[in-house]
């Protein structure tokens, strides 16, 4: 009877480990997770046989076989956590821990230093701790503590809500898994059934939920990791550019005086002295552009898992102003953009950051077309209409050809030359508008004007129902 629970958990871990490998393949996250499943399967499977045996020789063989996998279990969990939080700098500790596991495994097989036979309990034989067993316990405590710290730090630094929730569930799973260490007391003679198997089963359930609900091994986690790794150096580059912008004028003024008073020779190329003051602003502009692209890429992954409970009412004027203020305009481009006096009472219900990204995208596309055309202006206005906040974004660039217009919202479709666009901008805009219960449409008169019309539900309007059960929204086009 006492063997039923470990046998069940053993089969559960085996099945889930194989499922993850079959569906996710060999990745940096799936491999340590599969190792964790394999070690737990072997450990609990061995205990299922151990609790039933009455032969002393078989029991001695099983306690060492089962403990061989227990020795590696804390390290595999720690390895799994380091991949979840993308801490590759932890690899020296991982290798050292695996090395200690190998050493203890050799001692386990060749001596009674780690496990000194077994004791008989009411549920059956169970391993008896040897003189070196405390070394394994200390290793377990250190690895669990380190894993918890890594998860807490990653959660504290995480910006995306999904990432924080994912890490919280991993932290809870780690806590439950570590409670299985109560089984160590039985190794030292305390007579109770090793209930760690129950905590392990609960831990597995939480990890399973994380993998299914939050795509633990899917592209979103990868995108969030990349976004975090890119954002940190970008922020540092931006701060350095700001510092250069503040001190460079003083340095250049000193350089000019030194050259005038013949304290040093002028070693700069013609025009270089005039161009240097603009470098800091150029670097900052590129940093802001790259940061926005990273944020939009991450936002694109979150559209299918938006938390609509976090939606609120926002004035569309604030979103338009934020997009225009953040956009890295080239010299003279800001003068091409005209924003009408939008009433601050005009609001929409949804996510302000996503709408800012939509306007940002439209600005980028319109300015690209205007530069290719050589002339053009951009006009942005907004009004209310039938329960919607309606934003009109117009430009007087070259327009869009009739045969191209029906495809502009398709993913990977781009009219730009190779290497200048991936065809994701307008597709992202459409996905955002539909996720918010609205629409985006385009009308174009080639050589005259192109107008994008965004319709987003107003707070309290009947269109809010679309956010709870959004219908399939048709795409509309009109050629002028």
TrEMBL record:
It comes from Burkholderia lata (strain ATCC 17760 / DSM 23089 / LMG 22485 / NCIMB 9086 / R18194 / 383). Its EC number is 2.7.13.3. The chain crosses the membrane at residues 6-22, 29-49, 61-81, 93-115, 135-154, 192-212. The keyword Chaperone does not apply. InterPro entries: HATPase_C_sf, HATPase_dom, His_kinase_dom, HisKA_7TM, Sig_transdc_His_kin-like_C. It catalyses: ATP + protein L-histidine = ADP + protein N-phospho-L-histidine. The keyword Transmembrane applies. Residues 225-460 form the Histidine kinase domain. Pfam families: HATPase_c, HisKA_7TM. One of its GO terms (molecular function) is phosphorelay sensor kinase activity. This is histidine kinase. Keywords: Membrane, Phosphoprotein, Transmembrane, Transmembrane helix. Residues 459-480 are annotated as: Disordered.
